[in-house]
Amino acid sequence: xxxxxxxxxxxxxxxxxxxxxxxxxxxxxxxxxxxxxxxxxxxxxxxxxxxxxxxxxxxxxxxxxxxxxxxxxxxxxxxxxxxxxxxxxxxxxxxxxxxxxxxxxxxxxxxxxxxxxxxxxxxxxxxxxxxxxxxxxxxxxxxxxxxxxxxxxxxxxxxxxxxxxxxxxxxxxxxxxxxxxxxxxxxxxxxxxxxxxxxxxxxxxxxxxxxxxxxxxxxxxxxxxxxxxxxxxxxxxxxxxxxxxxxxxxxxxxxxxxxxxxxxxxxxxxxxxxxxxxxxxxxxxxxxxxxxxxxxxxxxxxxxxxxxxxxxxxxxxxxxxxxxxxxxxxxxxxxxxxxxxxxxxxxxxxxxxxxxxxxxxxxxxxxxxxxxxx
Length: 374
Prior knowledge:
Elements: H1 9-21, H2 24-36, H3 40-64, H4 70-78, H5 80-114, H6 120-137, H7 139-164, H8 184-195, H9 206-209, H10 213-241, H11 244-249, H12 253-259, E1 262-263, E2 267-268, H13 271-300, H14 310-323, H15 328-363
Helix pairs in contact: 1-7, 1-10, 1-13, 2-8, 2-10, 3-8, 3-10, 3-15, 4-5, 5-6, 5-13, 5-14, 6-13, 6-14, 7-13, 8-15
């Protein structure tokens, strides 16, 4: 029997970067500008700092239990059956909320901006079939595909930033902190919850698959920082080019940003070409979400192979992408009023609870005090 493929630190960095950018690059600028106005770029920087600390917390928990996924850590700290119950609840709620939402963003983006006459169901079904194919081929295929596509994503991102620089209007970022700190903190929290909390998905499958766990955790942190910085740049450019009012009213400000590209009345109307960047990152966001959920479900149910559950989960994801978000106003309300409390509960409260349980059990001697960090 062949040995399982171990992901290198470089591949982890690349996958984490693409996963972090994901759908956030499309939806983050609008929500932040509607709350923080012209100070959205300050909120993005604050959210970036908070997100890096959050990923460092995830890495610290993982370092205490090397080679264990989040499911294994839950069972280790909470006990076998309580851990399985909490794991199943986490995976079930994560599945209902996350991959379907990302697939909805893709379908809605395509049908409103690029292919308005195509039914969203057709786009979602075709896209999920490619996702299922990638997941069934395994993490090796996903990681190597990420390596191949990553340079093109970075090239497109660099081209987008460079080409819109001629449209910058610094006056649109003034006055700075007109309303003080009160609108900045909620916007920064939204940035952290939307960009960095989903990284929990990576801890459902990556730790046992890392070639070198110490370098792998470093790759997770670097990838998260890189992806978060890319989104912060897009937020700043949206404010400086479109202005806070237009950014706050736009559904997909980064796409509107690409429409502003016009060099000498020759290089223009290339936003569809730039959309390739978002489609690639959305693909890896959905793929890694479903791969994490499939592998976690296989571990909880003690299945020999996760692949039999991939296609049913993919079919359910298509349904969820249509049912969960019946329209755009509902989606915007969900993202601002429902996702944030859920993300705080699962992405901040749960890890802190695990830290507390670890310290208590370590103090009582129920956990060895010298867990080796690999």
